[in-house]
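Residues determine shape. Take a concrete instance:
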Amino acid sequence: MDIKRIEQTFSDVSKTTGWAVDKRIALAVTNIYLSQDQAFDAEKHEAAVEVIKKNEGWTSPLRSHLLHVAAAFMVMKEEAVESSLKLANQNQKALNDAGFWKTSYTYLAALLMKKPEEAEQARALYKEMKKHHKFLTSNEDIPYAALLGSREGSLEERAATMNRYYRDLREQGFTMGNNLQWLSQIMTFDSSVYDAKIVGKVLAIHQFFKEEKINISLAQYPILGFLAVTEIDGKALEGVVENTRELEKNKIFRWYKDMAFSTAVQQAMADNIEVRDVATMTFATSLETLMQAQQAAMMVSINAAIISSSNTSSS
């Protein structure tokens, strides 16, 4: 892990996004670029921001708290930003037509979808998930439904498997709630078929970090899923621990130690891609996209809370 590169990229991103943007969003954007091993190009990023501002209305989340995350996603893609934005809006409309309300999460899902036709599958999986967790399944699950709905396998089986993983981990002491649901969803990424081995891997990884005194917060539950399905070995996990401790000492992460862990994990995943074949690289890239979506979704929640709090205070 190149600490200096992280510091430099974060510094460049922060200067570009400006003082008004939450530093955690700047960190999320930094990770988007670094996880794809791309140098941050301020001019390209700013150009993407301008394209979004020019084409999106004032009420669009793409123009507000998702602005820089969306710009980073679009810069990463091979096609022009204009084309990526057009596709995102087509995907967003398809999600609305499929029955989802227009929210920050449908926009986030739209950014991750490859084509509008995936919206129907996302809606179908979301409905199946809701059968198992009626009240727990909410807007925050839409990006996951969009990505997982297009994976191979039965949607009904995938939702049932998610529920089994959720219950298995709950019985092992994991705290119920949205974060555990996200973890259970990620565990089905490779297959819709239930596999007790994946539960064992999650438990072993969780125990490993506990013994290393790396605190795993509820918000970090999904990361355990990423590590389990990518089958990162013991040496890589030791590297995550070492890099987390190193990052926690860095001034960038002084106030955001939870993001030191997620950054260390993303760097480990990026390092592992280099030795894999094309098919596995495609899988890992999709998984990283899901990880970034989860991180961005957290930022959306944080910003929504800040905006709500500000409105309440001023009224």
